Structure formats: C-alpha cells, structure tokens
Amino acid sequence: MEQTVSLLDAIAPAAGEPGREMFDPATGELVGVAPLHGLAELEAGVAAAQAAQPAWAAAGHAARSAALNAAADAVEASAEELARILSREQGKPLNGPNARFEVGACAAWLRSAAATPLEPETVVDDGTTKAVLHYRPIGIVGAIGPWNWPMMITVWQIAPALRMGNAAIVKPSGYTPLSVLALIRVINTALPEGLLSVVAGNRTVGSALAEHPAIGKVMFTGSTATGKAIIRSSAETVKRLTLELGGNDAGIVLPDADPKAIAEGVFWGAFINTGQTCAALKRLYVHADIYDAVCDALTDYAKNVPMGLGLDEQNVLGPLQNASQYGIVKDLVEAAKASGARVLLGGNPDENQPGHFYPTTLVADIDNTNPLVAEEQFGPALPIVKYTDVEEAVAMANALEVGLGASVWATDRDKAREVAARLEAGTVWINAHGLVDPRIPFGGAKQSGYGLEFGVEGLKHLGQPQVING
User: Is the pTM above the cut of 0.85?
Assistant: First the structure.
C-alpha cells in the first residue's frame, strides 16, 4: 500500500496548484487528488514535444523499440500499484478481465508495437521505374482517451505513435485522470524527457489539443458525438485522425448453436468491464428454436458471477464508473420493463447501498425498437431479441448507424462466416465477442469511426506515407 500512496503523491498537484478530488465509484471514498491542467500546461507540453521529437525520430526503429520494451518492463515492475489505483478510481475489480488484466495489456501492447516489423514497400520496380513507399513520423500526436479502459486504450494510442518516431500528448478523461497520470509517469522512466506528456484538463483543453496547429494527428476513443466535435475542431489544420467511436454491437445466435456451450462466451462478450466497453456485445439476437434454452443457459451462468468492491479478490464485476452512466442504464432498463419486456435476472438496483452498482441484468421478450436495444446502454444490461429467419436477424443487426463490432454464434463455422460477411461492422467474431489482439487490425464501420489500430496497419496510421519514385 505504501507504494500506491507514494505514486499517488508523486502525481498530485504541488501545494497551491489547482487540483480535483477523485472518488472511488464503489465506495465514494477519496482516492487521490489529480492536477487540473489548463492551456498553459498544454502549450508547455507542445513545446517540450517539439524539442524532443526530432532526436527521437532520428534514433530509428531499433532504438525506439528498445525504449518501448524498457517501458513495458517498468509497467510490469509497477503492475500491482497501477492496478490498485485503476481499481479504486475506475471501479473495476483487480481480478478477472479487469484491473490486473488491463495493466498487463499495457505491457503487452508496448511490446507488440516494438516488435511489429514495418519495412519500406517497393510498389513498382519494372526496370524503368522504382517506387518505394515509406512511413515517416508525423510529428506530435494528441491522444484523447476514455474512462472505461483508461490505461490500456492510452497505450493503444501512444505505443504506435512513439514507435513511429512521434512525440505524444495525452488528454485523459476527467473521470479517470489518476490512472493515466500514474501510467505515464511509469512509462516516462524509459523515455527521453519531454517526449510524452499528460495534460489532465477539462473539455476546453481537449478542444484546444484537437485544434492546435503543432499537433499533426489526433487519436480519440469515446462517443460518436465527441468524435464529430473533434472532426470539426481538426478541420482548420487538416489533422490526421483515428477515431474509435461508440458502438451498439450485435450478436446473432444461429439455430445450430449449443446454448450451454456458448453461455460463458456470450456473457463475457457482453459484461466484460461490467458492460462498459465500446466493443461489448450490447444486443443479442437468438433464433426461436433455441431462444428459451439460450436464455436459461445465460441466466444460469450470469447469476453466479460475483459483483462488488474492486479490491475484494473474489469479485469480477464492479460498479458503473460514474453516476451519469448509472442513470442511463437504470432509465433504459426501466423503460424496457414498462414496455412489457421480461426480466430474467437483475433490473432491481439497491438504491440504499453505496456506489454506482447496477446488478447484472438480462432482459428477454423485448422489441427490437425498444431503447434498450436501439441505444447503447454501456452497462450491465443485455437485451435478448427473438428472431425466426436469419435474413431478419442480419437486417436488425445492420439497422443502426454504428458498426464497431459484431459476432455470430454457431456450431457450423462455415455458415457463421457466411453470415458474418454480411454484417456491417469493423470486426465480426465467430463464437466470441470483443477479443482484441495487438497483431490484428481493429477499427469501426459507419459512425463507429475510421482509421485502424494494432499490428502493422496500426503503425502505418501513425506515420506519414511518403513515396520515393525514381
């Protein structure tokens, strides 16, 4: 515990500087005090990045990769204290696919960015013309992150940016600044001074970052509405953008699926991080032939998954991170209940307990137009819609304006792949949902954003393409 306190003290504002208290969403207890940065700190970060970036770019891929591996070593050395800060500030439990998992993913993605090869590509060499495609540093990358996976998604943004020779300035969510400040402090022990900085400010600071003429690219993960605002803010300077925006991912269970075999995978596809994941399964379409069996199997599994305080080792589900999100989930479930939908599990929060806990909730016999289906709930409530024809299921899955991820669940994988190919989503999983891999490109379709992350394609999106022809 002394290490955690020490790290929180290290990132706290100095005496007399502005700060804000951050509270545990599970208990309401004070976690720590985060600095409240403004435009002056943003300008200082830009100036430091401008000074540090040219030498970093000149160092080359091998030296930059070595530094990223050293940063991963530093994260692993501080893993437990980082996980405890994350658990207390974000609410997610230490165990399961949660806080310790997230910190481990930070190290894994740093190492993957370091290890992924990116060689110049000869596109034409016919004896007369030789054209070679290279990827040069952009300069400074602005990384604006969310509150649901604050550490991991920050690394998704900055690891490829740094590998490609850029400097980076991170703007964390106002709900989880301590987690990101602590992470960047640890990573910076392996990097040149000034190359990577954090500006923990409000929306005004975020807008200024998106508009800043010295920042050549912005990476953003968050809501579609905020993504559209960033597009507008970036227009004047024609910034490069990678946007991973809201989703309302559909899963289709085909009639040959084994209900008991898929129950665990469906559950975690929907309820990982207590449902607070952009690419979580948020609406499930099940064929009428196995509808009741799937509902029963999913309920049997879900009712035994423990929810509670994140620092209690047995829990694997936690609270909603903030009161606003709790209200959204509660209102959507209440509207579903009022419409006559059948609650299989949950839907009955204890308003007298501390924290933003909403129980694991499964809702069946619900119309596809119900708000719990049509709107992104971003919490622990899954609507289950019955269908009778696969054409109908595909049409319902594709009906919304978002398309981050989707999944198909079946025994016959060839049939599942046929259905998957018809779904309008950036990634479609077979018999799984939301699994990401640092080697496999990830990005959205429709209004779930554009640009790719991860693997060699992710590196390319953090470089400026240059063709040398001659």
Answer: yes
